[in-house]
Amino acid sequence: MARIGLVVNAGLTLVKLVAGIVGNAYALVADAVESSVDMIGSLAVWSGLRIASRDPDDRYPFGYGRAEPLAAAAVSMMLLAAAVGIAITAAIEIRTPHFAPKPYTLVVLVAVIVIKWVLFRRVLATSEATGSVAVAADAWHHRSDAITSLAAFLGIAVALIGGPGWEEADDWAAMVAAIVIAANGVTMLRSSLRDLMDRAPSAEILNQVSSAALNTPGVLAIEKLKVRRSGMGLYVDLHVQAKPLLSLHDAHILSGCVKTSIRREIPSAIGVLIHMEPFAENT
After folding, report:
1. E strands, 81-220, in order
2. Residue 206 has pLDDT above 60, yes or no
């Protein structure tokens, strides 16, 4: 999907830029700038996912999963930079008299909104299936582009309907688009930073791990469950309590059974570390 997004964004950027310049629609030019950031963002996501998919090695024994939230953070920062640039230029344009936009720019924007919304839905579905924050960032990037295109459509429509004296409505639409872009950038940056800071996943995932471990025959109790995300995978650290007189051999077999149960319940658990402890009645 990242490749498809890259190709689509390249085409849309060129169309919006040319139509915006020729059609005197700065909101459309601002939208083209946002699409160019989308294009760079899709490239960053693609590169991040390729790196994150590498197998662990001696230099990176825990794998390259961090490349994925780093790519998402980079996309977020590009969104924020684009928002600032668009806002500054829009403020200048509002104070500068210019011609009203051309009517055909509305047709271009309708096509863009439809295409970007379809991309958003498909990429979001992919992110939900894989659990990738970078792909999710790319999806919301497409959504922000659809929203900015809608803002540009409304601004240009107001400028055309209002007639002379309403030309700056196009520029105000670009300002609204900048605010939307900045909001999406902040949201995505917070999400990627959470993964980089090893924030625990959702309670649903923690409950799945707990249930898988407790339902394993021989497990009497669990404690100190820690789960962190690395790219599209999860690392689990869990203390399991069993019969105190269990032999080391049997404890080793039981820990393997717990790992298998967890991985069967959560296929994305790429690393499961089990600490075996004697069960105590007072715990």
Report:
1. none
2. yes
Helix (H) or strand (E) segment spanning residue 228: strand 221-230
Q: How many domains does the chain have?
A: 2
Of 99, 122, 93, 97, the C-alpha closest to 22 is: 99
Q: What element of type H or E holds 270?
A: strand 269-278
Q: pLDDT digits over 142-197, tens only?
A: 777 787 788 778 888 888 888 777 777 877 877 887 887 788 788 888 888 888 88
What is the C-alpha separation between 272 and 13, in angstroms, rounded?
45
Residues 6+ apart with CB under 8 A from 107: none
What CATH number corresponds to the domain at position 225? 3.30.70.1350
Host H or E run for residue 234: strand 233-242
Q: Select from 1, 79, 87 the least CA-distant residue to 37.
A: 79
Cα 34 from Cα 167, distance rounded (Å): 22
Q: What average pLDDT is seen over the chain?
A: 82
Q: What is the pTM of this model?
A: 0.67
Output the six-digit token pair for 117. Answer: 């919304």
Same domain, 16 and 129: yes
Cβ neighbour number for residue 128 with a 10 Å cutoff: 12
Strand partners, 275: 239
> Is 272 strand, coil or helix?
strand
CA–CA distance, 191 with 137 (Å, rounded to integer) = 9
In the numeric block, the tokens 């582009």 are attached to 145
Q: How far is CA 36 from CA 40, 48, 259, in A?
A: 6, 18, 45
Residues contacting 126, CB < 8 A, separation 6+:
1, 132, 135, 139
**Pick the residue with more confidence: 32 or 219?**
219
CATH (domain of 24):
1.20.1510.10
